[in-house]
Design goal:
The protein is mainly α. The chain has 13 helices and 7 strands. Helix 6 runs antiparallel to helix 7 and helix 7 runs antiparallel to helix 8.
Length: about 500
Amino acid sequence: MANTTEGRGLCVAPFLQRSLFPSQEGYLPGRFCAPVPSLGGSIECCLPCPATSWIYSDNFETIPKASNWLNVAGMVCTMSLLVSFFVLPVEKTSRHYLTVCFIIAVCILQLGFIIPLGAQPEQCHDAITPNDMSSDLMCAFSGACLLAGGFAAISWGFLRSLSIHLQICWQVVPGRKFFWSSLLAGWGIPILFASIALARTGVSYRFGDTCHINHNKALQDYWGPLLAFAAVSTILQFATLGYCIRVYIRALFKDDGISQSSSGLPSHNGSVKTVTARQAYRRVQKAIGVQWRGIVVVVIIIVNVVFLAVVFVSMDNTQQAVLQNFGKAAPWLSCLVVNGGDKNMCLDKVKGLATPEPEVMAVLILMSLNGIWTLLFLGRASMIPAWIELIRKRFARKHDFVSVDAKRFSATGRPYEIITSPPQSAYTPKIPDAAVTSPSLDGDTIAVLSPQSQKDDFTRDAKYVNPTMSFSTPRPPSSGRYHGREWDPVSTYARPWSPSTGNGGMI
């Protein structure tokens, strides 16, 4: 609020003379000036900038700042969702491109309220003129994010409503064509209308540190198309809801018809219809169970943006009515002159000249809660254990693979064999007890492997005990014995072989 007397001229406090501010920069239609008769002729006296500081109470300035900080909390919520969608598995997040793009649109909308916190822009270009996008760069950025983000949120909400309506009511599963069409329409349409609004209407500091769209042509360039998309989206939501109620009632009546039949068994035609109704009900129930979170958050965002549009259109109409007929504001202006510029004494006379302060506070707070609503409805409880497991795997100590046998042998202090390393000679693998080898060459002993022996020679001699009823003795292998298959030449009618006569000779 300007308290200096510089530029007052012939005007009485708290007004300033317009002719003393010849600058043509800033948002000139944003000046609140009125002609006042004087001895030298009619002069124009203006309220000091910002005009909202004279219309609303002293506590009003804290509301836009509080809403900006709430948007910071909302940005943390939406960014955590986006990071979870890109990092965690899809079975933990149930992410979908319609959901991801909708959250990105909400982030862009929140940037319009967060940018002023870091930039700390000047709302006024001079004592009576507010800044606009041509005189302040931060105003252009914040206003563009607000316009594009708000329209994008409505557009992606409309696409989500259309997708759910097609799946539930028409059994059409959107495919690749719908995917590319959604990307083109979901981002192309908001950019188009935001560009048109910035070029034809512009943005300026109307209240708070965030730039909002101006009044001139705002209804036909921006608010009209936005409200049209919101209306179509709302119609689709209610049409889908009505179809779900119809399917439920139809399945309910079909069940009653079967239970009250005289024979207890439905006819063929009735049975087919009943199965179809039940299948439709299960399909709708499953789709609603999966999509109800998205439906709720889309409805909330649409309601908030529509509420913002209604408040701004009402504010523009009220302001234009006052500027066209200053007689309505005469009691309030006279009160300011009589009380020497003490606005608190004249707040009761502002009614009807501006949008009520509670409405403006409500729309700012509701717009700031969009990010928090998004996290509550689109976030899933399964993301928390998924993040814990991911962090645990990232920072957990990596251990080599150890087999069960290696763990058992590790208690004895012996080294165990690793797959990638050669075996060590310090340890001899365990051999099954009482393993008997083939007979030894001397014919008197057999070799028995003992696992308890740690000597180089693991064998011990054992005397062969001849059984009492045995008529055989152990015989060593004979060098003269044939190792092949034996056969009798007489039984096979073959000629015997004689060394003296050669092969095939007769004995």
